Amino acid sequence: MIEPDWSRGLYAITDATLLPDDARLLNACEAALRGGLSLLQYRDKSGDDEKRWRQAAELAGRCAAQGVPLIINDDVDLAARLLRAGHRRIGVHLGQQDGQVSEARYRLGPTAIIGVTCHDRLDLAERAAVEGASYLAFGRFFASRTKPSAPPASLSLLAQAGRFRLPRVAIGGIGAENIATVREAGAELAAAVEAVFGAQDPEARVIALNRRLAAAGLDP
């Protein structure tokens, strides 16, 4: 069986404020997955290990049913636990303070998707690429409620990062009005939080965002 290509398209990231309980999280993510995500990231900073394990395991099952990898934000331990429990296509996204790519690769295996936050800096991207990252995330590119204090990045950074020959993720305030812009600037993946999970109908919103990506020359 050929697994779907995760490296192009829409990348949705959960938000514990927008999705404050299990039912809303799981229902919204399942709807978004039906709409056609390329990647889903589970992001929860609560420190409630039992809740995070329960929710991540549930999401892993739903992602597997749709053939979409589940990326765990900043927590290699949780990603490794999911793999030990038999879940497949589990990866991790690392911020600059969340450990080394090499350590995550050792623990999660050679095929795991390991993404790295590079902010607005090509030197961080180069280091992540050398260490074996699977994708490079840049941003914020636009005003963002989720990361209001993140340093702004120039769209020209995406073209410059093409030399690393890894999927480029654009993040930060991305929605219907600008998702084509980041694609045209070079991003293979457009990451969205509120644009997906702040919508009343995440499935319809994902479909609409994918249409804009396709119109900009990126078929999901």
Overview of the structural elements:
With 220 residues, this protein is an alpha/beta fold. Helices cover 40% and strands 15% of the residues. It is built from 9 helices and 8 strands. The chain has helices at 22-35, 49-66, 76-84, 101-108, 122-131, 156-160, 179-184, 194-197, 202-215; strands spanning 9-13, 39-42, 70-73, 90-94, 114-117, 135-138, 168-170, 189-192. An 8-stranded parallel barrel has the order 1-2-3-4-5-6-7-8, surrounded by 6 helices. The mean pLDDT is 94.
Any descriptors?
9 helices; 8-stranded parallel beta barrel; 220 residues; single chain
Topology:
Elements: E1 9-13, H1 22-35, E2 39-42, H2 49-66, E3 70-73, H3 76-84, E4 90-94, H4 101-108, E5 114-117, H5 122-131, E6 135-138, H6 156-160, E7 168-170, H7 179-184, E8 189-192, H8 194-197, H9 202-215
Parallel strand pairs: 1-2, 1-8, 2-3, 3-4, 4-5, 5-6, 6-7, 7-8
Quick structural overview:
With 220 residues, the protein is α/β, with parallel strands linked by helices. The chain is built from nine helices and eight strands. 40% of the residues lie in helices and 15% in strands.
